[in-house]
Amino acid sequence: MAKYLSPQAYIDPSAKIGENVTIHAFAYIDKNVEIGEGCEVMPFTSIIRGTRIGKNNKFYQGSIIGADPQDFRWKGEETYCYIGDNNVIRENVIINRGIHSEGGTRIGNDCIIMAETHIGHDSRIKGKCVLGNGVTIAGDTEIGQCTILSSGAMLHENGSIGDWVLIKGGCRITGNVPPFVIMAHNPASYFGVNAFIMRKKGFTDEQIDDVAKAYRHVYQTGTSVFNALKRIEADVQPSEVRDAIVDYIRSKNLKIVAIPRDLE
User: Fold this and answer.
1) Active-site residue 118, yes or no?
2) Residue 14 has pLDDT above 60, yes or no
3) Helix, strand, coil % (nearest 5) of the chain?
4) Which of 33, 67, 70, 98 has its Cβ near the most Cβ atoms within 10 Å?
5) H or E element at residue 103
6) Is 169 annotated in the active site?
7) Which residue out of 85, 122, 140, 210 is catalytically annotated?
8) Mean pLDDT to the nearest integer, 208-229
């Protein structure tokens, strides 16, 4: 498909538009915007200044990409929002750009972000994630690769979710979720290992068993997180999945969700 820029769209003359881009009628492309080749911008979508978009992304009707951050610390500085390649961003999604000139909001590659999801300033979402309808992500958060947030899930400010996690619909996350788990309910509670998705994507039964064994120590023995890590290192053979769990928890100073306060 050749580049098609509707005469009924507003495109600032300074915007940089790549090859084979389609911008439909009534879209708004602000100044200081870059859109990579193969993208499609549907009607009534707004791409706001400071947004940098990779290749082959599709933005559906009513989405606002690079919106002004909703944070009192932002005083009008030039800030940024970065979108990777091959993402699908559905209707009425709002993605805020960062509040500082360095860093910025960053979406990786191959994500699906469903309708009416809101992603706050300076969030970092790695590749191959799925965010369901109406997901709410506050500022300064991080979501690991291949993670799913089901419809209506909420991630509070400074929260972190590891790789290969499933957050059930409506679940509210107010801290750090380690990799390979399922979290559900409010307050959030451990709901098991994300085995179905892991198995579907090529993890072996041995790897999944190691993950389950590790989290039995963390969530099902009634010991402290500190002691649980010691038990994991003694009980589970070193491996990529075991090390991912241990390293993540240690990187968060042993503070993870669904742990009673007296066991932290």
Assistant:
1) no
2) yes
3) 20, 25, 55
4) 98
5) none
6) no
7) 122
8) 96
The predicted pLDDT at position 1 comes to 54
User: Token digits for 183?
Assistant: 């979290």
Report in angstroms the alpha-carbon separations of 232 from 164, 174, 242.
19, 25, 8
Cβ atoms within 10 Å of 32's Cβ, excluding its own: 16
Report pLDDT digits (tens) over 225-256.
999 999 999 999 999 999 999 999 999 999 99
* Residues β-bridged to residue 22: 4, 40
DSSP state of 150: -
Residue 260 above 90 pLDDT? no
**Distance of alpha carbon 79 from alpha carbon 106, whole angstroms:** 12
What dihedral do alpha carbons 45, 123, 116, 175 form, nearest 10°?
180
Catalytic residue (choose from 24, 118, 121, 217) = 121
Choose the catalytic residue: 54, 139, 152, 159. 139
Give the model's pLDDT for residue 2: 60
Which contacts of 180-188 are long-range, i.e. CB under 8 A and separated by 24 or more positions?
180/211, 180/215, 180/241, 180/244, 180/245, 181/215, 183/257, 183/258, 187/258, 188/257, 188/258
139 is catalytic: yes
Query: φ, ψ for residue 117 (rounded to 5)?
Result: -80, 145
Which tokens go with 84?
Answer: 């990777």
- Gap between the Cα atoms of 235 and 185, Å rounded: 30
